Amino acid sequence: MTNSLHPETLALHAGYRADPSTGSVAVPIYQTTAYQFESTEQASNLFNLSELGNIYSRIMHPTSDILEKRMSTIEGGVAALCVSSGQSASAFSIQNLAESGDNIVCSTDIYGGTWNLFNNTLRQQGIEVRFVDPIDPSNFLKATDEKTRAYYAETLPNPKLRVFPISEVSSIGRKHGIPLIIDNTAAPLLCRPFDHGAAIVIYSLTKYIGGHGTSVGGMIIDGGNFDWEENPNRQPLLNRPDQSYHGAVWSEAAKPLGPIAYILKARVTLLRDLGSTISPFNAFQIIQGLETLALRMDKHSQNAQAVADFLSKNSKVSNVIYPSLQNGENLKRAQKYLNGGYSGLLGFELSAGKEAGKKFIDSLELLYHVANIGDARSLAIHPASTTHSQLDSAEQLAAGVTPGYIRLSVGIENIADILYDISNALDKI
User: Fold this and answer.
1) What domains lie within the chain, and their CATH numbers?
2) pTM for this structure?
3) What would the DSSP string read from start to end of 325-394?
4) pLDDT per position as a tens digit, 40-90
């Protein structure tokens, strides 16, 4: 399948045409754990990585393979790895490059769960995460030393919704042999991070890609655009013998298979050993969502813009957080990196504070009160008491969460119905 096709076409066709044995046009659910080898020679080739294929479903299976090919083609990458959740994708993306004693530099503007993963769990594993304000890209360089293995950020982080300066930070990193890892969960199709210099893109497939709140999954996509050998001291895990895989040097071992050293190592070491495997059924469900992603992202963005405009005129709302309503450098970055819309996420602050926020949530009748984003349905939540509750008050404020802050994930319902429900809930405050 050619990369020249448009994303909405690739979402339906890339990586799969029909099942060779049955002719099935729909991607099957390959519900199996193991695979018959053609011969002892072929089995040996698979295990020593002279060819790629199915061995055991913990490492890969045909359903996830199709999803990986489809997503990597859409993003303009060379290979991808499905995992069981977005959190697994975040963790693996770092663990693939950093070990105890190393560090990464991360934007302060990230999802609360990721912040907790980085600041606590990875720290317990000996990996330091240094948080810097992305408003000034040079902050990443200031926090860099000889042990820095990666930069990490989100394209469109909630709750601040300040678009990250991808090209600016990636340029800094590449001068020093440091790849930029971008979580593009909130902006699929709207932003193509590889076009702006990112080396690795990750997703929580649970959100907009799946789109229907049915299945948890994550993905790591290798752009194939980063020279891991150029500075071997900067990237030791890809340039020294790996004793977990009979001394393979990944930057060398991957060459016969293509520029996939990063994703190959993640698959045959981290996924093999930690077992964060997506199920065939969840991969199938997420493929169904992917097929309509382009249609949904248009509608999500249109509806969210209408909601943002409505809220900005309401006297009970002190501030509306949405990319198109920002100003200065934040607006310039939104216009630079987002194409065709500003996604379905928005936030707003109620003048009356925490109790007003709780009353608003409890008064909604159409919008769901759930801890998710990117659903076809409209969702609402109070982050200070839920998604960001692991943070103390100072950390919440640093993340952009105030006591009266409400996060909306605007769905694809008729906009009149969405606005009516929001208006009715505001009237009850």
Assistant:
1) 7-288 (3.40.640.10), 294-427 (3.90.1150.10)
2) 0.94
3) G--HHHHHHHHHH--S---SEEEEEETT-HHHHHHHHHH-SSSEE-S--S-SS-EEE-GGGTTTTTS-HH
4) 999 998 888 888 898 899 999 999 999 999 999 999 999 999 999 999 999
